[in-house]
Amino acid sequence: MSLDLAAIRAAHDRIRPHIHRTPVLTSARLDAAAGGALFFKCENFQKVGAFKARGAANAVFSLTEAAHGVATHSSGNHAAALARAARLRGIPAYIVMPDNSSRPKLRAVEGYGGRITLCAPTTAAREATCARIVAETGAAMIHPFTDFRVMAGQGTAVIELMEDIADLDTILCPVGGGGLLVGTAVAAKALNPRIRVVACEPAGAGDAAESFRAGRRLPIDQANTIADGLRTSVGEPNFDLMRRHVDDVVTVSEEGIIAAMRSVWETMKIIIEPSAAVPYAAILEGKVDVRARRTGLILTGGNVDLDALPWMK
């Protein structure tokens, strides 16, 4: 399998009945502070509260045989998205989640009928537990970011963004495993080869930036960041695509993530989770120059524990 604009457009056609076309919001106050025009693609308004609904739906509805269900490992948003897509298709979903997953994300997976197995919060533990469940059940593995069907589904968000907003100069996209990033980069570059695609990640989970600079993949087993959706290392196929289609990778501090999250809440009056705040944090910390430019930011999700907000600690 491969990833190109045709695959992403086919995914868009396939999942259209199962997703929202999310709005693009702007803020004159944030534009003035940044010195440029900012366009926020609000995937926090997506089904399951995150962009992951796109990739999961594309993967599940691409399957020709699914009687034994699907399985994955995820910190939350992909887990909920896969459980939802499986329920729509009428098949079981076996979900491996780290035992430090947020309570709202655990409840969401349960609410969609996902069959949860908890494991230690490491990549090795997640992969080993999921492999055991696949062997026991015969379920189809839907990896949260290395599956090309997932990547194609995630890339549909930027197609909508670029259809709604003309002449973007830059796209800022969070990166964890890299499914959204490479889907975004492949689609954006195909639609406008001159556009600049910048990946943004927490410094406490900075493997993508380090790998990008080194020219080889340097995974980390355990990350330290409030942005729980970005704690995974970039996947191997994702890194290869990232090297070909992404212009830069920048990192931001935990303090920057919290400040960006709070600024969006207070100014735009919308709820976003820490992972979604990372691209705006890159602007706040001066990691990306957006002055006099038209910049699209993908707000990846809005699933937060309202009893444990970061500025309440």
What's the structural blueprint in terms of helices and strands?
Layout: H1 5-15, E1 24-25, H2 28-34, E2 37-42, H3 52-62, E3 70-73, H4 77-89, E4 93-98, H5 103-111, E5 115-119, H6 123-137, E6 140-141, H7 148-154, H8 156-164, E7 170-174, H9 179-191, E8 196-202, H10 207-214, H11 236-245, E9 248-252, H12 254-268, H13 274-284, E10 294-299
Parallel strand pairs: 2-10, 3-4, 3-6, 4-5, 7-8, 7-10, 8-9
Antiparallel strand pairs: 1-2
Helix pairs in contact: 1-3, 1-7, 3-4, 3-7, 4-5, 7-9, 8-9, 9-11, 12-13
The Cα radius of gyration reads: 18 Å
**Which CATH architecture of the largest domain would you pick?**
3-Layer(aba) Sandwich
Number of domains: 2
* Overall 3D shape: globular
For the sheet with most strands, the description reads: 6 strands, mixed
Please state the structural category.
alpha/beta
Average of pLDDT: 95
Low-confidence stretches: none
CATH topology of the largest domain: Rossmann fold
Order of helices and strands: HEHEHEHEHEHEHHEHEHHEHHE
Number of strands: 10
